[in-house]
Amino acid sequence: MAEIAIIDYGMGNLRSVAHAIEHVSPQSKVTVTSDPSEILGAHRVIFPGQGAMPDCMRELDSRGLRDAVMRSAKEKPFLGICIGLQMLFDFSEEGNVAGLGVLRGKVKRFPQDKMFDSSGEKLKVPHIGWNQVETCLSHPLWEGIEQGSRFYFVHSYYAEPDDEGIIAATSRYPFRFASAVAKGNIFAVQFHPEKSQSAGLALLRNFSAWNGAF
Amino acid sequence: MGLAKRIIPCLDVTGGRVVKGVNFVGLRDAGDPVEIARRYDEQGADELTFLDITASSDERGLILKIIEDVASQVFIPLTVGGGVRAVSDVRSLLNAGADKVSMNTSAVSNPDLVAESSHRFGSQCIVVAIDAKKTGEKKWEVFTHGGRRQTGLDAIEWAVRMQQLGAGEILLTSMDRDGTRNGFDIELTRAVSDALDIPLIASGGVGNLAHLAQGVLEGHADAVLAASIFHYGEYTVREAKEYMANRHIEVRL
Asked: Which helix (H) or strand (E) element contains residue A153?
């Protein structure tokens, strides 16, 4: 039975991710865990995150999970969600903290002075709600998901990769930002697939069958 | 195209059942929470809000069981409010499967609760609910305890203060309109939404689909919340979205 480990470092509602995976992939064994050996022993790893990135980094280190995350991100199908995407990068403007540096680039805040739509209406931050995701890479995780499908977002910061070639999808608020990135065995999304109804469940179903190649 | 305006059905829950009151009194039974949540999800609801209006503390645990059941079957964001008094209440609701927790009376009596919970769990999961009543020309006051207690706080100033303390969203209910089906208090909604950088959810008074569109177009709400028009089957969430889309409001269809 394929094992999927959801990395638990004490931040946020991980049960939703587990419920959603169990729903789409009853054949997988889902473990919510903060045990490095369970993470390293799993076939696939999900790296979620909620809250503020400095807290997430601190909690990750205080539980001694950095090494297990780094090793998983090198060798097995790996899905980052929300702050789990942001933490993969070099640096975040949120608290000016270093990330894990698995991907090159930095995480920036939506600039309040630029948050207006085309008719001049103020756009709120956090970016909360269902936005369209325009895929720009052909990838097994997008299989069966229509171009421009809506996913549920809730965040005030977004990642800006140095290498635009790793951008797997963009969304607009009001400018285009990377809403998904892909590099080798790593796939990471800024939105919450576990809260994005059928499109999100399709992505999680694809992940639960993904061999890490694309 | 970009971010969609959200339609959020609200389920008032007590004794394990969904009920709907009129002007904060007179409850009518509207059904089983899990069944109703599933139906709204199928209709395309963008989120669901559960308000636990249970008065007695011995029935408090019921809401956790409901949220657990809903969260394992419905994969859209869930907000839960009512009776949240301590950081430990926030934690148990999040652990049960809530994505956001809403606080109202306790935010007034203990603003530190908003600051502490948003610091601990992130502002994305902290919603401050404000019940406001018109007390003068362009003036609205915050009420607590289900609308029974006047606080002397100005609704706009209070909303901004909650944003500063770390609220991720404001859920604003007009007490003058709640249960009347006469539409949102547009003036109030716009005044509060325009004063905020964080999203505003408008609530109180929806009686037809035009009211929902007004909340967005005239009230500048980022999301609209309604209960009775959906519970009794007058309109489906999908019909509401189609109506809004026809008025050039961006929605998730």
From this structure: strand A149-155
Which of B2, B76, B199 comes nearest A132 by C-beta?
Answer: B2
Do the Cβ atoms of B19 and B13 come closer than 8 Å? Answer: yes
Contact B15, B54 (CB under 8 A): yes
Q: Are B97 and A173 inside 8 Å of each other by CB?
A: no
Nearest residue to B120 (alpha-carbon basis) of B97, B96, B89: B89
Chain A residues at the B interface, defined by Cβ less than 8 Å, are: 11-13, 15-16, 19-20, 23, 50-52, 112, 117, 121-132, 148, 150, 152-155, 171-174, 192, 194-197, 200-201
The answer to whether B155 touches B198, Cβ cutoff 8 Å, is: no
Catalytic residue status for B176: no
pLDDT per residue as tens digits for the range A117-136: 988 889 999 999 999 999 99
Distance, CA of B163 to CA of B94 (rounded, Å): 21
ipTM of the complex: 0.94
Chain B residues touching A148 at Cβ < 8 A: 1
pLDDT tens per residue, range B159-192: 999 999 999 999 999 999 998 999 999 999 999 9
Q: Of how many residues is chain B composed?
A: 253
Q: Give the right CATH number for A4-93+106-209 from 3.40.50.11540, 3.30.360.10, 3.40.50.880, 3.30.750.24.
A: 3.40.50.880
